Amino acid sequence: IFRFASAFDLRNQIMGVVVDNAANNFTAIEELRKTLPDDSLLSEDTTIRCLCHIFNLVVKVRYLLCYLVLF
Question: How far apart are CA 25 and CA 38, in angstroms?
Answer without folding.
Answer: 21
